[in-house]
Design brief:
single chain; 404 residues; alpha+beta; Nucleotidyltransferase, domain 5; 7-stranded antiparallel beta sheet; 5-stranded mixed beta sheet
Amino acid sequence: MIRAYKFLMRPTVGQQIALGEMLLDHCSLYNGALQERRDAYRHTSKTSIRYGQQSAQLKDIRAFDPERQGRWSFSSQQATLRRLDKAMQAFFRRVKAGRTPGYPRFRGANWFDTVDFPKDGDGCRWDSTPHDPVTRVRLQGVGHVKVHRHRPVVGKVKTVSVKREGRTWFVVLTAEQPQPEPLPRTGSVVGIDLGIANFLADSGGGFVPNPRHGRSAAAQLEAAQQTLARFPRVRRDKRTANHRRAVEKVAKLHGRVRRQRLDHAHKTALALVCEHDVIAHEDLKIRNMSKIPAPKPDPDRPGSFLPNGAAAKAGLNRSIADAGWGVFLAILNAKAESAGREVMAVDPRNTSRRCPECGHTAKENRPTQEKFHCVSCGHTAHADTVGALNVLRAGLVRREAQPA
């Protein structure tokens, strides 16, 4: 299996400058390759340029500009061109599927933060000495950069990536390692119901409160974004020091919320994986749940629109994004795979409206957000607990129906 590791880098001042130049030059290569594709399609009878054609030009590009392009790893530049090719392929795939195309855009200096090295030892070298207290990663054109390795890297390092987040630099490794030993069996199965009022309710009656990290930092973010909005839009090299500090403060607050959300998701998923052999959850279509309501034209007044609940839906969308269900489910599946656990996704329809005692399904069974009261048999419980019970039962039925 492939596992990723992310470590903090501690570059010197000179190495920070070199890392920034590496990002700028790779960004320039990405934008130049995108411009070539646009020109070829528009002016040369709609000709499409492939990755192989652009990769073959790298040798001449490096020879023409040795100061900017020739000093960096050839493989990392190929990876940048592959990134553009992947974006173009995704664009054409969306066009054929009839979805919103989303043509690849030019990257600004602040929107290109990662450089990939496809193979350890080709333009980069990870120091794999196990007992050396000082770990370094060697990057072509930068040198040996100190890395804060807070845990050992298990397996053979396959790829290395350098990533910038604000003023902080990270190295991301992918390592190939054998499948770990599964955790001991517990004999326990559980169904979970994700929500807003409570982040998670399980079929045993337990609840995990929603920390609402985004709402907690909303006041600070609003003040920081208002300060940033006062500055006029100018080029990056024309920004003042106050402007740069305002940008960094907004990025820092967003980064803190993101890390808090990830930490909560990791801890919650780990607790579930350690305690249960089978975990069933709703197969949520989060993108559909957070769509903006369609406008309602007013038939009596052309050019006017009727109320469509967009303001209330915007608040719900913020709460859904703040909960981070998608990130949590991805982490849960990854941890379950490593621990030898089973995760089942079931149809979420009517899971909170079906009575677990008599099976009666009706909208009236759920009079409020929290209360469940069956109109047929009178069973009363918390609505999220009822949903988790129905999810568990649907998951067990699906598990038994699957071929061995």
